[in-house]
Amino acid sequence: DEDEFANRVDENNFQHPENPAFDRVHIEQVSVETDPNGVMLMRNLEDLDSDSPTYGEIIYARAKTLFAKCSEDSVIVQFKYLFETDNPDVQLHVYISDVPELLDRDDPDWDNHYVEVGYLSPPPSGRPGSLGSGYFGLFETTVSVASLDLTKGTWLELNLIESHSSGTLMVLSNSRVLSEPPDPAPATVMVDDALVEVELCARGICGDFTEDNIPDEEDLLKVLAACGESSGLVEGGTDSRRCMDRLFSSDGYIDPYDIAS
After folding, report:
1. Calpha distance 151→241 (Å, rounded)
2. What mean pLDDT, rounded, does the chain reach?
3. Rounded to 5 degrees, what angle do the CA atoms 139, 141, 142 make?
4. CA distances in angstroms from 28 to 13, 154, 192, listed in the order given
5. Residues 121 and 214 in one domain
6. How, if at all, do strands 188-198 and 154-162 pair?
7. Domain CATH number, residue 138
8. Same domain for 80 and 136
9. Which of 108, 211, 221, 245 is 20 to 30 A from residue 255's alpha carbon, by CA?
10. Residues in contact with 27: Cβ distance below 8 Å, sequence separation at least 6, in sequence order
């Protein structure tokens, strides 16, 4: 939904006050065959305005998406991705934040409001998420957010970074890269189905999936109903099955071994 996208996603798109030729659309919602409802396209773009202090530099794409409030110490982050570059010096950096603003990395308040989740590089050719594969890869991990105050909202920020061939990241102020990237074509990646969800295990009662503080037959029924499914986030971000994938069968799926354990 375009309205929901506009209301939940903050970005660093630029609209020139006089000349539309200098506009930069780093973040937009586009339709693809696998998801006609739209995915988020992120692209790095060159500043073409000769009067700009960053003229000729590659400005990297940043997007910050709002999710629900949270009072837990850890969350699960999940999204699908498809790179449109095979440049190994490109990375998609992932953060959780407790403020809506796109703070620059050298902002004195950055460390107080951001937690780094991880980063992705383009996968090898033929793998899901790689250039030309036609298949989205999946990123999913659990991250501690105890240092953040997410009671007003949880923000997932993605930064598409290009680095020197030496591997040193050029993550500088004003969201820009100060020299030409090794790949002549600025980086692009598509992101879909982004979710941030509380991990039920973090609530402290193992086997309690109904949140009534008692592991009982209702919790068993939830495991039975999930049998055969992935142990990741439920589509829509309303629940998590990770804790159902028990200690003796942590294989990424809910199966009879999880029921028995």
Report:
1. 23
2. 82
3. 160
4. 9, 21, 12
5. no
6. unpaired
7. 2.60.120.260
8. yes
9. 211
10. 9, 11, 12, 13, 40, 41, 42, 61, 62, 63
Give the tokens for residue 85. Answer: 């570059």
**In sequence order, which residues have a C-beta less than 8 Å from that of residue 168 and are 6 or more positions away?**
none
Which pTM value belongs to this model?
Answer: 0.76
Reported as a single tens digit per residue, the pLDDT across 140-165 is 898 999 999 999 999 999 999 987 54
According to DSSP, the β-strands at 58-59 and 62-67 are unpaired
Domain count, the chain: 2
**Are residues 242 and 113 both part of a single domain?**
no
Which of 38, 43, 40, 39 shows the shortest CA–CA distance to 14? 43
For 250, the domain range is 202-260
Beta strands in 145-209 (DSSP E): 154-162, 176-177, 188-198
CA geometry: angle 181, 183, 184, nearest 5 deg: 90
pLDDT band at 32 (very low <50, low <70, confident <90, very high): confident
